[in-house]
Amino acid sequence: MITNNFPPKYKLNINENCNKCKRCAKECSFDVFTFDETENNIVAYNKNCVACRRCVLTCPQNAIELSENKIAFNSHFNWDYKTQNDIHKQSDTGAKLLTSVGTGLSHKNIFDHLLLDACQVTNPSIDPLREPMELRTFVGRKSDNISDEIGPQLQLETPIVFAAMSFGALSLNVHKALGNAARKAGTCMNCGEGGLHPDMVEYGPNTFVQVASGRFGIDKEYLESGAAIEIKIGQGAKPGIGGHLPGEKIDKEISKTRMIPEGSDAISPAPHHDIYSIEDLENLIYLLKEVTEYKKPVGVKISAVHNAPAIATGIVRAGADFVAVDGLKGGTGATPATIRDNVGIPIELAISSIDKRLREEKIRHKASIIASGGIRSSADILKIIALGADCASIGTAALIALGCTVCESCHTNKCAWGIATQKPELTKRLDPEEGGERVYNLLRSWSLEMKELLGSLGITSIESLKGNRERLRALDLDSYTMETLGVKGAGR
Amino acid sequence: MVLEFYQKVPSGCAIAGIMNTEAMSFSGNKIMDCIEVMHDRSNGLGGGFASYGIYPDLKDCYAFHLIYDDEPSRVETEQFLRKYFVMVGGETIPTRNTAKIRTSPMLWRYFLKPMEHLVEEIDEEEFVVRRVMEINTGIKGAFVSSSGKNMGVFKGVGYPEDIGEFFMLEEYHGYLWTAHGRFPTNTSAWWGGAHPFSLLDWSVVHNGEISSYGTNARYLDTQGYPCTLETDTEVITYAVDLLMRKHSLSLKDMASVLAAPFWDKIDNMEPSVKEHLTKLRIIYKDLLLNGPFGVIIANTDMMIGLTDRIKLRPLIAAQKDNWYYISTEEAAIRKIEPKPEEYTYSHAGKPLYATLKNKDKKGDKGTKISQGARLKGELNDDNK
Predict the structure, then answer these.
(1) Is pLDDT of A77 > 70?
(2) What positions of B carry a catalytic annotation?
(3) What ipTM describes this predicted complex?
(4) B314 at interface of A, judged by CB pairs closer than 8 A
């Protein structure tokens, strides 16, 4: 016998408080629980558990205990549980491993090694309760000087937008929740590459509409509905990879939103098949500008790869009004695990080099930079802005506010919290009003925190932190990384 | 890039400025008396003056004041200058031995006219700016402390009144003077680091610290102004030159960029004003100066006082007859003008300013030191 019967990663224990109400069996969308009539008890099939915690949090008797399965493994550093388990899964099926969310590997998190400055004596710190503190940000092309016309600008009241996440990857209720939050906070969501559902058109003034390689849901009305247009070339979690929404997910609603037949696979090719070069990209940028009569910013999203500065330069010269860059730790609804964990570079390094290159070429003002990929807090946002971004975009953080527990199962369409699924019995679990309020609270909280941080820096406007690397110091980073970041070591 | 590893020298300060709006010249004694009142606002590590109208005999020449670390830097700079300019005159800047200022770098001035064939196609002032930047970034040990016409900057390490005595400023006559006493919080014995900072005929004296330095400097670098002088005041000088000379912004628009009104104010303004200010803030967002400052900005035609957008530094102006005064402290103005007609206190972001009424005059008296004939005779020719 070949030992492929791998022990489950998590263990569920149902204690004596259980009153056999079977709620857990209804709540669990991963088929963990069954009711054994003969024994009159709940049986948990641990191997299906992804630790989404739905059962634990909904059990009226508080009877379910979830823990990591502490089975002993040989304590080999190289051939740990995950490595062995992956190999078994691959030799069972012969298929590539799929996963979701951003990479969970222990790549060094540069944000955690950057520290912000504060004022003492020579320069007073500012109290945000007493003095105005400005976070307003404009996305779009700026002119060289006042006598020239500036391009169309997207006004954001806080330098945070929501990352592109499609209807298809996410439920319609999530889109509505994000739309509500964006509208209330004066910022924007991004409809991703799945088109704009008719219910979402009213959120258009707070929406980036995306044009991706599958061209789903794109017509003139779609482009005109959005506040800005984003051409998606790449995504941090899967640079160089397209997307695949399986036919079973293409129900009536998704079918009409994406403008494809019900039940057919929605395949986004890896490249745009009309963009094999930078001059092709320029054509698409100007096509979209022509269609929308130069009234909206048109930008390009790329994943952070080694050559990102040169690519970004090309994109700006090709006429883009903003460049969105998604780093190594960016999230996804589905990707091959090996791509997610091994391809791309951290957003901190990418933004630093892109900002530097654009300045060297004297075209930095011609486009805004939107940074994403593993941004977890208000401090991360200020740090990426100080490294050169104009604003940050958040995906996973907003979903966590909606109840996501990062169980890495978005691609299974089984999300028990009703976020990354199309099953009506699951999607109804998320109320778009309540969810919108929670995400809005997150934006509000982060905005207040950013104002506190700015005040301690003696700065009254976020504009004065952009590219201001002088206010950052590095702790425990090697000199090469510090040079790339343009940041001095702490204590200097 | 020098920028990324710049060493900041925060400083407190005293600033003062006196202008005769009829362009009547007066001796440097007056500004020295004025700045001396604020002795305790500086700590002896920097003082300086900008004087306008002091070289009327050579008013068509760019007067370059140079600070040299050593002889090789002077030789290299003079070779460089001869490539681009006709050198009408050049000499060491006269100084007197004083007990207070014991050591100094080599101090020279040159009166220069750009070679005509080199400026045929480009703007002459831009030509001069480029050369100043090339000297400051390219020649080790050389620093251009001023480069305007009929004006000059005299600065060094010491209390301002001692620096004035060292440069014998009582013998100079100008119609507009600004002064600076510096309180840097760490020692930098570099004469170039003292104020005023100057480019063409712009000069800036600054009390404060710019928290947005990194953002400002990175933007100015893309606009052709590399910042290399280890101080944040440099960015103000370049920003003013960029906005007012190159982009032809009005004085008020310049103030609305450097000390921009807050969005909640702009949002409630009447539509045309709102649109204009919004556009200014969007385009020049990187030039917003954050952090406390009170500055006096001067050129041949005007003197401007400006404080930051939440007024974290004091500044006061006073007026009497044809005299206009700006100072950190009222006491300094009272010392030289006991009974002004009117005091104006600075409001956040609102410029205090006076302009020259008699624009053709610009210094009737001049100074005895800079006689063209004498300059030619003393010009060091050993590099020919």
Answers:
(1) yes
(2) 13
(3) 0.89
(4) no
